[in-house]
Amino acid sequence: MQQTSKKRPRGRPPKEAAGFSETREALLSAGVAALTEKGFSATGIDEILRRVNVPKGSFYHYFKNKEAFGAELIERYAQYFSSKLDRILLNKDRSPMERMDDFVEDAIIGMQRYDFTRGCLVGNLGQEMGVLPPAYRSLLVEVFHDWQMRTAACLKEASNIGQLKHDIDCDAAAEYFWIGWEGAVLRAKLEQSEKPLRQFAKGFFAGYVN
Predict the structure, then answer these.
(1) Is the four-CA dihedral 163, 153, 91, 195 of positive or negative sign?
(2) 107 within some domain
(3) 93 — phi, psi (to 5°)?
């Protein structure tokens, strides 16, 4: 009698097949932590493996190579940060510019939590672009544009209710914010102090808020 292969039960695929294994998630979490602290070129695969105590074979089971791993880290961080921006900048219980201030305070608390050892993964990678895979450039630019768009929407809301000075270009203001903010994060990490973040925010608000 001919044997038939056992059919897979209907429904959601097993967690491992769907790509959501605990080991894979641990590798991604460790990668985000390492890249926010040290950057891409200074972080080796062996260091990531030591952080989560898994063999090298496990890494290559989930990721083709370090370049593919880094690309997924960019996507993971972008999703996390976009959700964070939405949580803060879409909070209808706060006025638009109060939300911008809330973002600054949340960032300060986050950097304090890790003693200013961690910065922005996207900003860190942008500084390393000369030694990174060329494909990362468009990924990073896209992330910054997404953050700017979300910030511009909040600023436009502020403009509509008279919180901003007359004739402010909210798209340009959002771009300026992220250019300056990434520099402030770098300086805060360097000085291990919240002062650069507060200094930039103070200047930004002084230039745009009524």
Answers:
(1) negative
(2) yes
(3) -80, -5
User: Who's near 123: CB < 8 A, 6+ residues apart?
Assistant: 182, 185, 186
Does residue 178 lie in a domain region?
yes
CA dist 189 → 34, 126, 196 (Å): 14, 16, 9
- Per-residue confidence at 58, pLDDT binned at 50, 70, 90? confident
In this predicted model, what pLDDT tens digit does every residue of 7-34 receive, in sequence order? 434 444 344 444 448 899 999 999 999 9
pTM for the whole structure: 0.86
**Does any domain span residue 27?**
no
The enclosing domain of 108 has a CATH number of 1.10.357.10
Q: Is residue 176 part of a domain?
A: yes
Q: What percent of the chain has pLDDT over 90?
A: 83
Domains identified in the chain, total number: 1
